[in-house]
Write a structure and sequence with these properties.
The chain has helices at about 5-15, 40-55, 105-115, 130-135, 165-170, 185-195, 215-225, 245-260, 275-285, 300-310, 315-320, 420; strands at about 20-25, 60-70, 75-85, 90-95, 145-150, 155, 175-180, 200-205, 230-235, 265-270, 285-290, 325-335, 340-350, 350-355, 360-365, 370-380, 385, 385-390, 395-400, 410-415, 425-435, 445-450, 455-465, 475-490, 495-500, 505-510. By secondary structure, the protein is an alpha+beta fold.
Length: about 525
Amino acid sequence: MEFNATDRKEAFRLSEGDGYAIYIIGVHDDGDVVGITDEEFESTVDTIKNMAQQLENTRIVSIEKRTVDSQDSRVVAEVHLSQKMPLPQTELRIAVLGDHGAGKSTVLGCITYNEEDDGRGKARLNLMRHQHELESGRTSSITLTAIGYSADGHVQNYANNRSAEDIHQRSQRVVTFIDTCGHTKHLKTTARALTGYAPHAFCIVVPADVANVSAATLEYVQIAAAFRVPLTIVISKMDIADKTGFGAMMRHLMSSLDALLPDRSQCIVTESTAHQSLADDMMKLNVVPIFTTSAVRTVGFSELVAVLGSLHINLSDKCSADCEPFEFHVEDLYSIDSVGSVVTGWVHSGTVSSTSDAQLVIGPDSTGNFADIDIRSIHALRIPTEAVTARMSASLAIQARNAVAIQKGMVVVDARTLETTKRHIRTTFAATVTLLNGDVAANQDVIIHIRAAYHLATVVEIVTDATGQPSGSSGSKATIELELAESEYIAPGTPIVARDGRSLIFAGHVALV
């Protein structure tokens, strides 16, 4: 849908006003009150209503009208508009993983922009954030991009929308892709994406022009198993695949999936595949869909987009999380002129409204303390909204009542649950993990990623593996006791990833604190 100049001005005013705008009718720009006739007033209001309909999710909240000249029946008025995203709107976050050169950004470019690649990386250019990424073709930062699905099932992407805001406004369901780094040089960034952005599912991209699946790819499969998240495989570069090499790679991939995910079957998706039942089985951890694609020939993407549109998070889990106390995990933070401090992240549990009188706190800081804050406004999926609920991404404009150094990895919680929260601030904890790469030994130093934060930690003891026997070898499951160099908020069930600077060591969940 194309907007005219007037519609774009209204969209700009709503954006400036954080979802609100006021039109003053019958007053000149210099403040001179002249009034307009009733006929002119009705025509003006109709124009504003038409603009609101064009922008979607926008409505006239109130009209305040008064007469300034009773003899000529001239009036002035204030027309109040609001643009707030209606709830519920669901979001599914998918982490896109794979080796450097596997084609992750190219695959996402084809999905989100609906355009083919030229074989030299044209499709990935829209996802690059830095000049050195454009020059090297190597992703070095986390990039978020999305597609949406309207109520009637139509795909909303950058091919039929001007911006991410338009996609989100016109979609009932949104799939957010977390594009990660493939090179080991940026392992820290990829590890942060796995724990800080709370993906609901993994998508691992494997190039078709290799003879064997890489060790890094198999580690991502192991992490999917350890996190117990749904997994899909996208085979890229089918246009340059060698028949013999591709066959060897697929045999290696299938045997590896059988070994690492014995409870999940594999399904190579074709045009005749039942998309909804496949999506349901994927989210129930029963199957791993495998898509064969070519960005140059734009083959396989229609099936992939169809299955993604059929994915749904477990609503019963979401409803139970909605009833729990509010907890928001901070992924990133910004300071914006005229707005102040803004934290972005996702709602782990509970519900919060910008108009509620709930007392919220943010922390912990280096001393383990929390600071009182007020929420000035809320954006969900880049659109102003009144409230956000569990499992949703959000941006909160906050105002601290006392000085606090906000950091990535902090949490925003209800002050009424602060005592319970503080009991989870500690330096030692146990985690149930899958060992990924090499041996792990007591007294070994590792870097632990938890939410969007990371800390130096020491392996105190490797307690047991799944059979109850001491173990520290790659591929085994174990309970590990860890001690952090500084205190952190650590709740049971929180996903963690450990690395040693060169490789990922283990992944799992916090068991005991």
